[in-house]
Amino acid sequence: MTKTSILAFSVSLIALGAVAEEEKVLNIYNWSDYIAEDTIEKFTAATGIEVTYDVYDSNEVLEAKLLTGSTGYDLVVPTGDFLERQIAAGVYMPLNKDMLPNLANMDEKLMAAASSHDSDNAHSVIYMWGTTGLGYNVAKVEEVLGADAPTDSWSLVFDPANAEKLKDCGLAFMDAPTEMFHAALTYLGFDPNSHEPAEIEKATALMSSVQPYIRYFHSSQYIDDLAAGEICVIAGGWTGDVYQAADSAADGVEIVYSIPKEGALQWFDMIAIPADAPHPENAHKFINFVMDAQITADITNYVWYANANEASMELVDEEITSEAGIFPPQEVKDTLYTATVKTAAESRMINEAWAKVKSGS
Ligand code: N2P
């Protein structure tokens, strides 16, 4: 062989190796409490691919890692508005749809809705979707606020008179700045997606006024604490997480998820492959695997989140499909809004305002 042909030979071997012999490893970074107990086990049994599975409970945390790069993750699950900004920053690789035959199972309308964040769904597939509302302990809230407590309104947590009364039974707020600002702006009658400094300031003042009554800011601790009666209200709770608390609560403890009448955020969590993912082929295999009707139904049946897989719906338990909090009727859907993408400067303003709220300054 000449030098050039040796070089060409080894280059083609490397190319082949990259495609045909990806090591049987996959690194997933997903939200906590967001997968069925046996999903990973079944994927490994079907493919021989060993999975490392890490969790987070914050889009902001995920984004900070992704923007730094070289996370080593092959799959991540940002929410649509965050994904949109990350796509613009070059964080994701386009999907190879030839490797995703189960895309045929997906609900076309929901995928079209999600394409507002990712044109032609080129980089992502809906993993689960839900809303950001209120979770509460029926008996404890009635005890402190009476039978006509406004559990269908953001005033439950943003009216200082109510928040003060909830202090002792435990009022928790999500540590999710973007979503908490959406909620506070909605309660004040502003556009939930407003980034007008004057309106953000009013929302900051509103949340600061109830800050002394908040036991903690955290976005996943509330599942166990609601179930155990350690807190009585979570403001900004996510659908399935509140239902998981309800499902695991002790006998006689009733936990309810409510979509406030003033409006709430509907979001899509999207599964996507970072551009520098070390195992993109395995990542495609996993995406296709979770789009299997039975696998995705198993996840919904375990985590109580709606999915966007039309073929799975007949396999989802009726106790879930019949829940108006998970699959809202049209009149409730009409009150939901979606998040529009924020610029880095707008997010900075919101994050700084949030730091003020949390510190009580
Ligand atoms: C799962 C939380 C996912 C909802 N625990 C956040 N979009």
Describe, in plain words, how this protein is organized in 3D.
The protein is an alpha/beta fold and 361 residues long. Helix content is 44%, strand content 16%. It is built from 17 helices and ten strands. The strands form two sheets. Strands 4, 5, 6, 7, 8, 9 and 10 form a seven-stranded mixed sheet that branches. The protein has a three-stranded parallel sheet with strand order 2-1-3. Helix 2 (39-47) links the parallel strand 1 (25-31) and strand 2 (50-56). The longest helix is centred in the first third of the chain and has 18 residues, at 3-20. The protein starts with a helix and ends with a helix. Residues 31-34, 79, 238, 241, 267, 269 line the site of pentane-1,5-diamine (N2P).
Outline of the structure:
The protein is α/β, with parallel strands linked by helices and 361 residues long. It has helices at 3-20, 39-47, 59-68, 80-88, 108-114, 138-145, 155-158, 160-166, 177-187, 197-210, 222-227, 239-248, 280-290, 293-303, 318-321, 330-333, 344-359; strands at residues 25-31, 50-56, 75-76, 124-137, 171-173, 214-217, 233-238, 255-258, 264-272, 336-337.
What's the β-strand tally?
Answer: 10
- Helix/strand order, N-terminal first: HEHEHEHHEHHHEHHEHEHEEHHHHEH
- The secondary structure category is alpha/beta
Largest sheet: 7 strands, mixed
Identify the bound ligands: pentane-1,5-diamine
Chain-averaged pLDDT: 94
Rounded to the nearest angstrom, the distance between the terminal CA atoms is 73 Å
Basic shape: globular
Radius of gyration: 22 Å
Strand composition percent: 15-25%
List the total number of helices.
Answer: 17
Q: Note poorly predicted spans.
A: 1-18
Percent range of helical residues: 40-55%
